[in-house]
Structures are given as C-alpha cells and as structure tokens.
Amino acid sequence: MVNYKELGLVNTKEMFAKALKGGYAVPAFNFNNLEQLQAIVTAAATEKSPVILQVSKGARNYANGTILRYLGMAAVEYAKELGWEKPQIVLHLDHGDSFELCKDCIDNGFSSVMIDGSHLPYEENVALTKKVCDYAHKFDVSVEGELGVLAGVEDEVSADHHTYTNPEEVVDFATRTGCDSLAISIGTSHGAYKFTPEQCTRDPKTGKLVPPPLAFDVLEGVMKKFEKQGGFPIVLHGSSSVPEEYVEMCNTYGGKLPNAIGIPESELRKASKSAVCKINIDSDSRLAFTGAVRKHFAEHPDHFDPRQYCGDARKEMIKMYTHKIVNVLGSKGKAE
Q: Smallest Cα–Cα separation from 113: which of 146, 130, 136?
C-alpha cells in the first residue's frame, strides 16, 4: 500500500471547496507521457493553479502503473523546483470501470478516483459507486461518480448518443453513495469529433460549423437541487474546445481531421463560474502535440532526435495549458 500523501499529492476535497466558493474550475488534464506531464506542471506552477493529473485506464496500461506513481511524485518535486512552494497536485483515475481498478489505483498512490457506473441501471450505479467510496474514504482518497451518459469516443469510453443527467436523481445519488463530486451530462462529448455536422449549424459568413449550446438548464436544475446542502462539486467531462489553430496545423502538415469541433470556450467560462469545479481536457493536448510534431517534421525532414520534435510539442502544450488556466477556467493564482 502506497498512500498518496507519501508522494506529496493532495485529494480534491479542499480544492473543490475553494473552487465552489470562488467561482472557478480546477483544470483536469489527461496525460500519457513525459512531455505532457512536464507541460502541465510547468503551466500550473507558473500560474500557481491547482491541477489534476488525469490517467485513464488506457493511459495506465500504456505508461505502467508503477511508473505513473513515481511520475506523480516527480510532478510534485518538479513543481517545487519551478518555485511552487506548496504544489496542489492531484493524481486522478479517469473513468475507472470497476471496483478492482479503482482499488488498485488507491493502493498505488492515486489521491482521487472516478468510478463510472453511468452505463449501469441506476441502483447498480449507486451500489458500485458506494463500494468504491467506502474503500477510498478509508485512505482519505476522493471519489467522483457520474450520472448521465456522454457521447463520443475516448480511449475505452464510447457512446453513440448522450443522455442528460436527471436533476431529480442527483441528491439521492450523492447521499447514498457518499461521492465527493459528481460528473454530469449537459451536452459535452468525448473526443475531437464532439458533434456531427448534422447536429451543428453553419456560420453564414465563414461557413464554419457552430456546435449546439450546452444544456445550462440541466446544470441549473442540478445546482438548485443541491442548494440545501450549500452546493456540491460538479464535473464536466469531454470539455476540450478542439482549437481551430491545432486542427489546421494538423491538416496543413498531412493530417486529415475533417469537421473536428469542440466546446466553445465561452461556454466553458460560463460553466466554470457556477458549481462546476472540475473541467476535463484531453483532446486539446493531443491536437497540440500532434500538430507541433507534424509541423516540425515538415520543416525539418532530416530530424530524428525525439528531443527535437517532442520539445516543440511540449512548448505548444505549455502554451495551450496556460491559456486554459488563465483565460478559460479562472484558476490562475488559486494555489499560491
């Protein structure tokens, strides 16, 4: 058993309480490799933003659980080297699909886990989430549950259509399971193709796709149900904005990403000022990395040293993560 506190990590409880009160969201950035981790920590340390390092089941299999544990510890020490005296860094399992997976992460230094039972019948979701919470809370590990289904594809998580969260269920779910935060479905989607062209409209001036608005009425309904409890931390998955500059960079240098579209940053700014305390971003990092690498090879076809092209990718991701922290989520300076 390795407790996350031995690694210098924190859980999300105090972090979310501050965000809920302060009207901002904590960035939750997925990572799979060293360059992504370095970029996330650099941006968070520079801007003194709390940050959640997210690891999916697929990323854990790719990078190895033991290596990830030490990367979490390295992230804390690296942040200190960058001048962040008291780093607020969470190591979080994204979309855990079983009690066994969540337990293994808890036993190996994760400070937060998500158990995704949203595909199950309601009572089964409650039972599974409660089982994870009962185990996790013995070690002061935070647990995120989910109600509602997001469309899209990301790693092992996929669904053809979304199902909005029912506000009538949220208080019962949170009370019976004991979860510390709740992911809800209000129209965000996984991946870089969050909406089909048929779901969008086209700007008559530019011809570009315009995604449908998020269902803020659902979010407001959820928030209203939690008013008696003084509010409750809400999470949005599938919240990459799929920046046009990175899609164009990929396509200009040999990629083929037609009709890739994400969540407008204006909608994420609005959500971050509500009870949404955690916003998940993954595809934007993948696009920034891939675009920079494609551009590098197009301009330097003779290069073969990974430090050259991965270095460019790291710089681009630092720029992207910093933008999200400062201009979208409002978490800059919230972890001095």
A: 136
Q: Which of 240, 313, 282 is nearest to 53 (CA)?
A: 282
Q: Is the dihedral of CA 194, 198, 203, 209 positive or negative?
A: positive
At 168, list the tokens: 């009538």
Asked if residues 88 and 48 have their Cβ atoms less than 8 Å apart, the reply is no
Catalytic hit among 94, 116, 180, 282: 94
Distance CA 300, CA 130 (A): 53
Average pLDDT over residues 77-101: 97
C-alpha distances (whole Å) from 57 to each of 83, 144, 149, 172, 262 are 32, 15, 18, 28, 23
Q: Classify residue 182 as left (phi > 0), alpha (psi -120 to 50) or beta.
A: beta
Q: Which domains are delineated in the chain?
A: 4-329 (3.20.20.70)
Q: Provide Rg for the chain, Cα atoms.
A: 19
**If DSSP states are collapsed to H, E and C, what string results for 267-288?**
HHHHHHCCCEEEEEECHHHHHH
For the question of residue 94 being annotated catalytic, the response is: yes
Length of the chain: 336
Tokens of 173: 């779910």
Beta carbons within 10 angstroms of residue 152's beta carbon = 21
The strands making up 151-154's β-sheet, listed across from edge to edge, are: 157-159, 151-154, 189-190
Nearest to 40 by CA among 70, 82, 4: 82
Q: What is the pLDDT of residue 153?
A: 47
Sole residue written with tokens 């994400």: 262
pTM of the model: 0.94
Q: Is the pLDDT of residue 159 over 70?
A: no
